[in-house]
Amino acid sequence: MEPSKNPTPIPQLLPSPLFYLLLALMTLLFIARSAGKLAGKRKLPPGPAGLPFVGQTFALLKAMRQNRGEQWLAEMAERYGPVFRLSLFGSNVAVLSGVNGNKVVFGGGGGGDDVVGAKQAEWALRILGRRNLLTLDGNAHRRVRGAMGVFLKGDVVRGYVGRMGELVERHLEREWKGKETVLAMPFIKSLSFDIICTLLYGLGGVADRDSLKKDFQDLIKGLWSLPLNLPFTRYRRALQAARRLRAAFAELVVTRKGQLERGEATAYDDLLTCFLSAKGEEEGFTEEEIVDNGVLAMAAGHDTLTLLITFVTRVLADPDLYARVYAEQSEIANGKGHDEPLNWEDLTKMKYTWRVAQETLRLYPPIFGSYRRILKDFEYAGYHIPKGWQILWVSSLTHMNKDFFPEPSKFEPARFDNQSSIIPYSFVGFGAGPRICIGQEFAKVETLVTIHYMVTHFSWKLACPDETVARVPVLTLSKGLPIHLLPHKI
Description:
By secondary structure, this protein is an alpha+beta fold. It has helices at 10-13, 17-41, 57-65, 69-80, 99-106, 122-128, 138-152, 154-158, 161-175, 184-201, 206-223, 234-261, 271-277, 287-315, 319-334, 344-348, 351-363, 396-399, 440-457, and strands at residues 83-88, 91-96, 116-117, 181-183, 370-374, 378-380, 383-385, 390-393, 458-462, 469-471, 475-477, 482-487. It has one domain: CATH 1.10.630.10. The chain has 19 helices and 12 strands. Strands 1-2-8-5-3 form a 5-stranded mixed β-sheet. A 3-stranded antiparallel β-sheet has the order 4-12-9. The protein has a two-stranded antiparallel sheet with strand order 6-7. Helix 12 (234-261) packs across helix 13 (271-277) and helix 14 (287-315) packs parallel to helix 19 (440-457). Its cofactor is heme. Heme binds at residue 437. The chain crosses the membrane at residues 12-32.
């Protein structure tokens, strides 16, 4: 049989473009119908659309730089409801506002370690480390928290009062005495870092402390940046800083271990010797666990404490607030002998001063928010929250809610006169429930000791009353809080 003289051209043997178009339309229709059925069964939280991967990241960061981050989220809640979704830093994020949302985040109900866990996204783990307290759940979390709690528990921290006082007086003598104007924020940052390095880690040398300081600043900035591991990005600098910090802490762990073995140190000398001396259920802590949690404690304590004390200093430029704090502190100072150091009993009398600090923390929380990881699908307020998403916790969603704090923009320390009147999980300046900040007692002691010596030696006025407040990513003041000093001595 002879082959056809006019074979069918190859293109005519293939389906026409119309066929592909119809196939694509049918596929899209099938996907849409399937998604609609799934959505009907599992209703996801509403939220704004956004670019792939980026989502609302840049919009939120811009609002934070303008000190409008809390307002931006409040507007999202008003538009979409108390439960809504965002796309931030490459992750799907659910925002659960209100006290019930805080309970889910802090383990007080509606979830639990099997549903809502501390496991962070991979990009965050590369900075914070995989064995730090904030990333652990269940027995691992309780084990590390228990070891840190031994060193940061009340009776141990109360013993720091006198030593903290010495450090504060030394810094004031060196950096404020004889000055007319100072930058309060850098001063407090240096003081707080000195206190943490000295009391928690036994680092007495200035060189030891200064070599760590910038790396911690870069690490914190990287946690609130787009996780792009490219040259010159904040995230790349944070990764590099984290590696240097871990190397420095690993070396310090080796030193402390040798000192313990030679009898030159005790279990309660600093946080690292406490970890090295503690025993878990079967064995001691690994070097990774000690290093990761050593880095975490220093980073968390340094930044949050600095900002709390800085903003207390800022609000005490108000003459009426200052007068009440000064009256309380001068009464304590006048009841002591010459050069007699402060003690824990003195701090228990600083009730109004601590109310001022709590109200400052309500209005000016140092950290904008934090994440928790969804470990398995669960339902909340009629919405389906899928496994793998993250929950964004932001304190302002309750701190600035008039249902919990009437006239929320007003600075009113009396809100905290009756602690039992505060609705549980509405004030989360130190977290709440099972995951309340383990260092809150240390923070309270350092804040009260610092403010005591500041107000009994000086009063002050703001040099720049209109100074810009922003979050880049943590709370900051554009000029470092310059103040005019008016020295006095009780």
